[in-house]
Amino acid sequence: MFIARQPIFNKSLKVYGYELLYRENSDSKTFDNVDPTKATASVLGGLFENGIDDIVGDKKAFINFDYDFLMSDVVELIDPNTLVIEVLEDIRADEKIIDRLKYLKNKGYEIALDDFVEKYNDYPLIPLTNIIKYDILARPLNTIKNEVKLALYENKILLAEKVETKEKFLQAKEMGFKLFQGYFFSKPSVISESNNKKTIKTQYIKIISELKKDEPSYQRLAEIIEIDINLAYRLLRVTKRRENKNDFESIKKLYYIWD
Fold this sequence. Notes:
Radius of gyration: 19 Å
Low-confidence stretches: 236-248, 255-259
Structural class: alpha/beta
Strand order of the largest sheet: 1-2-3-4-5-6-7-8
Distance between the termini: 12 Å
Order of helices and strands: EEHHEHEHEEHEHEEHHHH
Largest sheet: 8 strands, mixed, barrel
Helix content: 25-40%
Number of helices: 10
Strand content: 15-25%
Number of strands: 9
Mean pLDDT: 80
Protein backbone atom coordinates (compact mmCIF):
# COMPACT_ATOMS: atom_id res chain seq x y z
CA MET A 1 0.00 0.00 0.00
CA PHE A 2 1.30 3.43 -0.94
CA ILE A 3 0.15 6.99 -0.28
CA ALA A 4 0.45 9.63 -2.96
CA ARG A 5 -0.16 13.29 -2.37
CA GLN A 6 -1.07 16.11 -4.72
CA PRO A 7 -0.56 19.68 -3.51
CA ILE A 8 -3.39 22.19 -3.39
CA PHE A 9 -2.32 25.79 -3.92
CA ASN A 10 -3.80 29.15 -3.02
CA LYS A 11 -3.98 32.17 -5.33
CA SER A 12 -0.41 33.11 -4.47
CA LEU A 13 0.74 29.61 -5.49
CA LYS A 14 1.65 28.72 -1.94
CA VAL A 15 0.77 25.21 -0.76
CA TYR A 16 -2.47 25.22 1.24
CA GLY A 17 -2.76 21.47 1.70
CA TYR A 18 -2.40 18.05 0.12
CA GLU A 19 -4.97 15.61 -1.19
CA LEU A 20 -3.88 12.19 0.02
CA LEU A 21 -4.52 9.37 -2.42
CA TYR A 22 -4.38 5.58 -2.30
CA ARG A 23 -2.02 3.81 -4.69
CA GLU A 24 -1.78 0.04 -5.12
CA ASN A 25 1.93 0.19 -5.92
CA SER A 26 4.71 2.73 -6.45
CA ASP A 27 4.12 2.85 -10.22
CA SER A 28 0.37 3.48 -10.04
CA LYS A 29 -0.77 6.72 -11.61
CA THR A 30 -4.48 6.37 -10.85
CA PHE A 31 -6.89 5.16 -8.17
CA ASP A 32 -6.80 1.55 -9.52
CA ASN A 33 -10.56 1.04 -8.91
CA VAL A 34 -10.02 -0.05 -5.32
CA ASP A 35 -13.02 -0.16 -2.98
CA PRO A 36 -13.34 3.41 -1.57
CA THR A 37 -13.66 2.21 2.03
CA LYS A 38 -10.48 0.15 1.81
CA ALA A 39 -8.68 2.99 0.04
CA THR A 40 -9.57 5.47 2.79
CA ALA A 41 -8.65 2.99 5.51
CA SER A 42 -5.28 2.46 3.85
CA VAL A 43 -4.61 6.18 3.56
CA LEU A 44 -5.51 6.76 7.21
CA GLY A 45 -3.43 3.83 8.38
CA GLY A 46 -0.44 4.96 6.36
CA LEU A 47 -0.91 8.53 7.53
CA PHE A 48 -0.52 7.58 11.19
CA GLU A 49 2.05 4.88 10.58
CA ASN A 50 4.38 7.26 8.77
CA GLY A 51 3.48 10.32 10.84
CA ILE A 52 1.10 13.11 9.91
CA ASP A 53 3.78 15.77 10.29
CA ASP A 54 6.09 14.00 7.86
CA ILE A 55 3.37 13.78 5.21
CA VAL A 56 1.56 17.13 5.42
CA GLY A 57 3.60 19.20 7.87
CA ASP A 58 1.55 22.18 8.99
CA LYS A 59 -0.72 22.02 5.92
CA LYS A 60 -4.20 20.58 5.52
CA ALA A 61 -4.81 16.92 4.69
CA PHE A 62 -7.68 16.43 2.20
CA ILE A 63 -8.98 12.85 2.42
CA ASN A 64 -11.91 11.23 0.60
CA PHE A 65 -14.58 9.57 2.74
CA ASP A 66 -17.45 7.38 1.62
CA TYR A 67 -20.74 6.95 3.49
CA ASP A 68 -19.64 4.10 5.77
CA PHE A 69 -16.42 5.79 6.81
CA LEU A 70 -18.15 9.09 7.55
CA MET A 71 -20.51 7.27 9.88
CA SER A 72 -17.63 5.65 11.77
CA ASP A 73 -15.60 7.03 14.67
CA VAL A 74 -12.34 6.65 12.75
CA VAL A 75 -12.73 10.12 11.20
CA GLU A 76 -12.12 11.68 14.59
CA LEU A 77 -8.68 10.10 14.93
CA ILE A 78 -7.31 13.09 12.99
CA ASP A 79 -7.14 16.58 14.48
CA PRO A 80 -9.80 18.87 12.97
CA ASN A 81 -7.11 21.52 12.49
CA THR A 82 -5.40 19.17 10.04
CA LEU A 83 -8.16 17.23 8.29
CA VAL A 84 -10.45 18.43 5.51
CA ILE A 85 -13.21 15.85 5.02
CA GLU A 86 -13.87 15.31 1.31
CA VAL A 87 -17.37 13.94 0.79
CA LEU A 88 -17.36 11.72 -2.28
CA GLU A 89 -19.61 12.82 -5.12
CA ASP A 90 -21.78 9.67 -5.11
CA ILE A 91 -22.57 9.74 -1.40
CA ARG A 92 -26.19 9.30 -0.28
CA ALA A 93 -27.26 12.60 1.31
CA ASP A 94 -29.79 11.22 3.78
CA GLU A 95 -30.72 12.42 7.27
CA LYS A 96 -28.08 10.27 8.96
CA ILE A 97 -25.23 11.67 6.93
CA ILE A 98 -26.54 15.23 7.36
CA ASP A 99 -26.63 14.80 11.14
CA ARG A 100 -23.18 13.23 11.12
CA LEU A 101 -21.68 16.08 9.08
CA LYS A 102 -23.32 18.62 11.39
CA TYR A 103 -21.67 16.89 14.33
CA LEU A 104 -18.25 16.83 12.64
CA LYS A 105 -18.54 20.45 11.58
CA ASN A 106 -19.39 21.43 15.16
CA LYS A 107 -16.24 19.58 16.19
CA GLY A 108 -14.25 21.94 13.97
CA TYR A 109 -13.79 19.85 10.84
CA GLU A 110 -13.95 21.50 7.42
CA ILE A 111 -16.26 19.80 4.92
CA ALA A 112 -15.46 19.71 1.19
CA LEU A 113 -17.68 18.39 -1.60
CA ASP A 114 -15.58 16.44 -4.09
CA ASP A 115 -16.25 16.73 -7.85
CA PHE A 116 -19.46 18.65 -7.27
CA VAL A 117 -22.07 17.99 -9.98
CA GLU A 118 -25.37 18.42 -8.14
CA LYS A 119 -27.83 21.31 -8.48
CA TYR A 120 -26.47 23.90 -6.10
CA ASN A 121 -29.79 25.20 -4.77
CA ASP A 122 -31.24 21.75 -4.16
CA TYR A 123 -28.35 19.81 -2.68
CA PRO A 124 -28.89 19.27 1.08
CA LEU A 125 -25.19 19.19 1.99
CA ILE A 126 -24.47 22.71 0.69
CA PRO A 127 -25.30 24.46 4.02
CA LEU A 128 -22.75 22.23 5.79
CA THR A 129 -20.01 22.76 3.24
CA ASN A 130 -16.92 24.94 3.61
CA ILE A 131 -15.19 24.02 0.33
CA ILE A 132 -16.64 23.03 -3.05
CA LYS A 133 -14.37 21.25 -5.51
CA TYR A 134 -15.13 21.59 -9.22
CA ASP A 135 -13.54 19.31 -11.79
CA ILE A 136 -13.12 21.95 -14.49
CA LEU A 137 -12.56 19.35 -17.20
CA ALA A 138 -15.92 17.72 -16.49
CA ARG A 139 -17.62 21.07 -15.78
CA PRO A 140 -15.88 23.80 -17.82
CA LEU A 141 -15.60 27.17 -16.12
CA ASN A 142 -17.83 28.90 -18.69
CA THR A 143 -20.71 26.58 -17.76
CA ILE A 144 -20.72 27.26 -14.03
CA LYS A 145 -20.43 31.06 -13.84
CA ASN A 146 -23.84 31.63 -12.22
CA GLU A 147 -23.33 28.81 -9.75
CA VAL A 148 -19.91 30.16 -8.81
CA LYS A 149 -21.36 33.61 -8.14
CA LEU A 150 -24.00 32.12 -5.84
CA ALA A 151 -21.44 30.02 -3.99
CA LEU A 152 -19.17 33.02 -3.48
CA TYR A 153 -22.14 35.06 -2.23
CA GLU A 154 -22.66 32.35 0.39
CA ASN A 155 -18.99 32.52 1.38
CA LYS A 156 -18.01 29.11 0.06
CA ILE A 157 -14.36 28.47 -0.75
CA LEU A 158 -14.07 27.23 -4.32
CA LEU A 159 -11.37 24.79 -5.41
CA ALA A 160 -10.63 24.20 -9.10
CA GLU A 161 -9.51 20.63 -9.80
CA LYS A 162 -7.82 19.33 -12.95
CA VAL A 163 -6.24 22.68 -13.78
CA GLU A 164 -3.94 21.81 -16.67
CA THR A 165 -2.97 25.17 -18.18
CA LYS A 166 -1.96 28.63 -17.03
CA GLU A 167 -4.94 30.02 -18.93
CA LYS A 168 -7.41 27.94 -16.89
CA PHE A 169 -5.66 28.87 -13.64
CA LEU A 170 -5.97 32.58 -14.43
CA GLN A 171 -9.58 32.21 -15.57
CA ALA A 172 -10.57 30.34 -12.39
CA LYS A 173 -8.71 32.86 -10.26
CA GLU A 174 -10.54 35.73 -11.98
CA MET A 175 -13.89 34.02 -11.33
CA GLY A 176 -13.21 33.87 -7.60
CA PHE A 177 -11.69 30.44 -7.03
CA LYS A 178 -9.26 30.51 -4.10
CA LEU A 179 -7.72 27.03 -4.24
CA PHE A 180 -6.23 25.14 -7.20
CA GLN A 181 -5.13 21.61 -7.96
CA GLY A 182 -3.99 19.93 -11.15
CA TYR A 183 -1.21 18.85 -13.49
CA PHE A 184 -0.36 22.49 -14.33
CA PHE A 185 1.03 22.76 -10.80
CA SER A 186 2.01 19.22 -9.84
CA LYS A 187 1.07 15.59 -10.47
CA PRO A 188 0.40 13.24 -7.52
CA SER A 189 3.61 11.68 -6.24
CA VAL A 190 4.06 8.60 -4.08
CA ILE A 191 5.56 9.64 -0.76
CA SER A 192 5.18 6.72 1.64
CA GLU A 193 4.81 2.98 1.91
CA SER A 194 3.50 0.78 4.69
CA ASN A 195 6.47 -1.33 5.75
CA ASN A 196 5.49 -2.88 9.07
CA LYS A 197 2.15 -4.52 8.29
CA LYS A 198 2.98 -7.75 10.07
CA THR A 199 3.88 -6.05 13.35
CA ILE A 200 0.86 -3.77 13.32
CA LYS A 201 -1.52 -6.56 12.34
CA THR A 202 -0.27 -8.66 15.26
CA GLN A 203 -0.86 -5.77 17.63
CA TYR A 204 -4.39 -5.22 16.28
CA ILE A 205 -5.22 -8.89 16.79
CA LYS A 206 -4.14 -8.62 20.43
CA ILE A 207 -6.20 -5.46 20.94
CA ILE A 208 -9.30 -6.88 19.30
CA SER A 209 -9.01 -10.09 21.35
CA GLU A 210 -8.89 -8.04 24.54
CA LEU A 211 -11.81 -5.82 23.54
CA LYS A 212 -13.98 -8.86 22.75
CA LYS A 213 -13.80 -9.96 26.37
CA ASP A 214 -16.77 -9.27 28.64
CA GLU A 215 -14.56 -7.11 30.85
CA PRO A 216 -11.58 -5.90 28.81
CA SER A 217 -8.57 -4.72 30.77
CA TYR A 218 -7.47 -1.20 29.92
CA GLN A 219 -4.20 -1.94 31.69
CA ARG A 220 -3.58 -4.78 29.26
CA LEU A 221 -4.58 -2.56 26.31
CA ALA A 222 -2.12 0.09 27.46
CA GLU A 223 0.66 -2.49 27.65
CA ILE A 224 -0.04 -3.62 24.08
CA ILE A 225 -0.30 -0.12 22.68
CA GLU A 226 2.63 1.53 24.45
CA ILE A 227 5.25 -0.50 22.55
CA ASP A 228 4.29 1.26 19.28
CA ILE A 229 4.14 5.07 19.31
CA ASN A 230 2.20 5.34 16.04
CA LEU A 231 -0.28 2.71 17.15
CA ALA A 232 -0.73 4.57 20.42
CA TYR A 233 -1.50 7.78 18.56
CA ARG A 234 -4.10 6.02 16.45
CA LEU A 235 -5.92 4.19 19.21
CA LEU A 236 -5.63 5.95 22.54
CA ARG A 237 -7.87 8.85 21.58
CA VAL A 238 -10.59 6.39 20.60
CA THR A 239 -10.14 4.31 23.74
CA LYS A 240 -10.45 7.35 25.99
CA ARG A 241 -13.57 8.72 24.28
CA ARG A 242 -15.68 5.74 23.36
CA GLU A 243 -17.50 2.87 25.04
CA ASN A 244 -16.07 -0.58 24.48
CA LYS A 245 -18.35 -1.49 21.59
CA ASN A 246 -17.48 1.63 19.64
CA ASP A 247 -13.78 1.13 20.41
CA PHE A 248 -14.00 -2.32 18.91
CA GLU A 249 -15.73 -1.13 15.75
CA SER A 250 -13.27 1.72 15.19
CA ILE A 251 -10.21 -0.42 15.70
CA LYS A 252 -11.67 -3.17 13.54
CA LYS A 253 -12.15 -0.65 10.72
CA LEU A 254 -8.45 0.22 10.72
CA TYR A 255 -7.56 -3.46 11.06
CA TYR A 256 -9.14 -4.06 7.64
CA ILE A 257 -6.28 -2.10 6.08
CA TRP A 258 -4.08 -5.14 6.39
CA ASP A 259 -6.74 -7.77 5.62
